[in-house]
Write a structure and sequence with these properties.
With 244 residues, this protein is mainly alpha-helical. The protein is 81% helix and 0% strand. It contains twelve helices and no strands. The longest helix is centred in the middle third of the chain and has 37 residues.
Length: 244
Amino acid sequence: MRAQLHSELLKLRTTRTSTWLLLGAIATVLLEVFADVFSDNLHTISTEIGQRVVFGAGTLGALFAAYAGMILVTNEFRYATIRPTLLFEPRRRVVIAAKLVAVAAVGAVFGVVGVALSFTAGFAALAVRGVDFVVSGGYLALAAGGTVAGCVLCAMAGVALGALIRHQVGAIVVLAAWFLTFEQILFTATPSVGRYLPGKATSALGGVTTPHLLSPSLGAVTLVVWTLAFVALAVARTERGDIA
């Protein structure tokens, strides 16, 4: 397990994809913060709910963390390196476990960067507009921890999704369609159902308090259940399926 984990960490460190995804997360979080602060009226961003949306922008990094996990697996199938990987470590369950642990560290980095950016840019943007801070320190601590945890879990879910779909382009399309389209449509149409989807659970875990979202604790439980379900399916497919 230790040797396989070292191998997975080396793959993550020596590919440019993770760096580009982190840059994408940085740009997205900053864009969301500035859009929230400078496009809303002063009354909205002066409320605690409005400011929680601003400081919860770091949860957007979870999508990029999921892509990092997904690409770690799909690259193996795209470039046919899965065969030497399994020759080196024939226990497929161990390979998946090593990828999950390695990408959890990457997810934590995405989460920490997202928190740092959303907090720093959020405070600065609100100060520029002359808005007093009304969020509590307790909320900020909850949002920080929840954002990091959400990014870790989404990165691990990305590994599972990659192992299930395997085709890189197909996995990219599915992930984007799920988070950016399907979840938004279902949450808008039926919020009582849509709020239990992984993307919305990630937002709730990160402290976003828009109407109809779950509480942070229930969001955490929901996201853990989704992640475990995806991982279980991925392990079953990897253990029993053929390696192309």
